[in-house]
């Protein structure tokens, strides 16, 4: 897709590291002007410099996605530098493992505010700055949105909300030519989430349960984002795209399939 996004403005929230930063690099390599945003001034400055070192035109903005007024200013500054937003990715997230009885109301609210309210804030604050028609908006969600998980009540609730924000905005904003979709990554190698589960026994068990028998890569998610923002996806909106090696299908281990071994 080299050059396919030349001159386009791609804005990625939550992009100081991981999947979201990989998405920013992919679009930058394809010729886009990239704005990256995250709450840590030091980390987002480093992320923007890394993009520039790779040859991209990049702007870094420090802002917390829970700060709506700050986001309004961030979009105004980004558009002043790069023009209207053609592609917007909202991927800021917070998570931890904890049983509900050890999750305080404040801890629960923190994840809701970052993941769910943050996604809404990013999308809503972007409206006046989008290319209309033609903008592609993408939320980064997770399998917890549809599959309840122990020790993840906060993330399950937040991501379920992200899915519905995606679908509701797709309904409301489609008439203006704005498409809204989400990507639901499965187990992705070299990410903070998987590093927390990286002991060899746990890793082998996860891989054996996947239909495709391996972790995905950050590049897999970046390529999905580029597809959803390309002319090839011009008739796709309100879709939650699973990029998960079959994780959403359930346990594909030999034992679960009744094959043994």
TrEMBL record:
<dbReference type="InterPro" id="IPR002347">
    <property type="entry name" value="SDR_fam"/>
</dbReference>
<protein>
    <submittedName>
        <fullName>Short-chain dehydrogenase</fullName>
    </submittedName>
</protein>
<dbReference type="InterPro" id="IPR036291">
    <property type="entry name" value="NAD(P)-bd_dom_sf"/>
</dbReference>
<dbReference type="GO" id="GO:0009062">
    <property type="term" value="P:fatty acid catabolic process"/>
</dbReference>
<comment type="similarity">
    <text>Belongs to the short-chain dehydrogenases/reductases (SDR) family.</text>
</comment>
<dbReference type="Pfam" id="PF13561">
    <property type="entry name" value="adh_short_C2"/>
</dbReference>
<dbReference type="GO" id="GO:0008670">
    <property type="term" value="F:2,4-dienoyl-CoA reductase (NADPH) activity"/>
</dbReference>
<keyword id="KW-0521">NADP</keyword>
<dbReference type="InterPro" id="IPR045017">
    <property type="entry name" value="DECR2-like"/>
</dbReference>
<keyword id="KW-0560">Oxidoreductase</keyword>
